[in-house]
Design a protein that fits this description.
- A hairpin with a 2-residue loop joins strand 8 and strand 9 (158-159).
- The chain has a five-stranded antiparallel β-sheet. Strands 11-12-13-14 form a four-stranded antiparallel β-sheet, with helices on both faces.
- It has 289 residues and is α+β, with helices and mostly antiparallel strands.
- It has helices spanning 14-24, 37-42, 78-83, 85-90, 93-98, 104-109, 112-118, 125-131, 149-152, 228-234, 241-248, 265-288; strands spanning 7-10, 28-31, 50-53, 63-66, 69-73, 135-140, 143-148, 153-155, 158-159, 166-173, 179-187, 194-204, 210-218, 225-226.
- The protein folds into three domains: 7-53, Uridine Diphospho-n-acetylenolpyruvylglucosamine Reductase, domain 2 (2-Layer Sandwich); 62-173, Uridine Diphospho-n-acetylenolpyruvylglucosamine Reductase, domain 3 (2-Layer Sandwich); 179-288, Enolase-like, domain 1.
- Helix 10 packs antiparallel against helix 11 (241-248) and helix 11 packs antiparallel against helix 12.
- The protein starts with 6 loop residues before the first strand and ends with a helix.
- The protein is built from twelve helices and 14 strands.
- Pfam families: CO_deh_flav_C, FAD_binding_5.
- This is Molybdopterin dehydrogenase FAD-binding protein.
- It comes from Rhodothermus marinus (strain ATCC 43812 / DSM 4252 / R-10) (Rhodothermus obamensis).
- InterPro entries: CO_DH_flav_C, CO_DH_flav_C_dom_sf, Diverse_Substr_Oxidored, FAD-bd_PCMH, FAD-bd_PCMH-like_sf, FAD-bd_PCMH_sub1, FAD-bd_PCMH_sub2, Mopterin_DH_FAD-bd.
- One of its GO terms (molecular function) is oxidoreductase activity.
Length: 289
């Protein structure tokens, strides 16, 4: 449990961090909260020659509202999200999800940017940012670009980030009127990672039918994903038990899901159905106010 020898540099600005990444290439790894990278290094599953510590970049620790969106710096911790009054008022599903991550020690140090960039298939935030239709800002040698959350998670620990890029900010819409969202998960009792986690977003039309529905799922497959077919079936309908049963039937194919010591693919498919039904009911009730 001892890492390979490595060098350490602390960056105080985004430009400084990018310069170090450009200079050292694949030999460098970015250190944010460290709750994903350090265990991998101790097991020597990751053996960087240089750690670029971005924890001192203060501009990435802010949460602010701008142009109808909430902007979270990559270094905002889970605990900060959990207790943010701005987020509780404008997008309460984010604090709801943050409160379910790990334990207090993890929430005090772990960051939203580190979690999303690591793209653990059982992490909580990916389902939520998918359901919220969030945007992820990446900053690299060619400047800044925006990646829709639906395009960000590409496979096991694989994202749309390019070599030399930093995930710098996450932007989520302020919850519009007559909308609601919820996040529920079946946690692994040891790690608190999601065996399956489901986030649901619902926006209602004046007649209480669904104008918009988004369902994000984590833990079930090699990468978080949207249940797009189920979403389409629910648009234009009122959420009740009969509608949910029909719309969520066969929402996932067990052949596409993970099977391991925590759960079989078939059980994960069952959890997807159960948690989606509960999360959608909760989101619907919140949208109705």
């Amino acid at each position: 449990m001892i890492p390979q020898t490595f060098a350490y540099r602390k960056a105080h600005t985004i430009d400084e961090a990018l310069a170090l990444l450009r200079e050292h290439g694949d030999e460098a790894k970015v250190l944010a909260g460290g709750h994903s990278l350090i265990p991998l290094m101790k097991l020597r599953l990751s053996t960087p020659e240089l750690l670029v510590d971005i924890g001192g970049i203060r501009e990435l620790t802010e949460i602010r509202e701008r142009d109808g969106r909430l902007e979270l710096g990559a270094l905002v911790t889970h605990r900060t999200i959990e207790f943010s009054e701005l987020l509780r008022q404008k997008c309460p599903v984010l604090p709801e999800a943050a409160a379910q991550i790990g334990d207090p020690q993890v929430r005090n140090k772990g960051t939203i940017g580190g979690s999303l960039a690591h793209a653990d298939p059982a992490a909580d935030y990916p389902a939520v940012v998918l359901a919220l239709d969030a945007e992820i800002e990446a900053t690299g040698p060619d400047g800044r670009r925006t990646i829709p959350a639906r395009d960000f998670f590409q496979g096991l620990f694989t994202t749309a980030l390019r070599p030399g890029e930093l995930l710098t900010r996450v932007r989520v819409p302020v919850m519009p009127p007559r909308s609601g969202a919820a996040y529920l998960k079946f946690p692994n009792p040891a790690s608190r990672y999601a065996v399956v986690g489901v986030a649901a977003f619902v926006k209602l039309a004046p007649d209480d039918t669904c104008a918009e529905v988004r369902i994000g799922i984590t833990g079930a497959a090699a990468a978080a994903f949207r249940a797009t077919e189920a979403e389409k079936r629910l648009v234009g309908k009122t959420i009740d038990e009969r509608t949910l049963a029909a719309s969520l039937e066969d929402m996932v194919d067990p052949d596409d899901l993970l099977s391991d010591l925590a759960a079989s693919a078939e059980y994960r498919a069952h959890l997807c159905h159960v948690l989606a039904r509960r999360a959608l009911r909760q989101a619907f009730e919140r949208a109705r106010g």
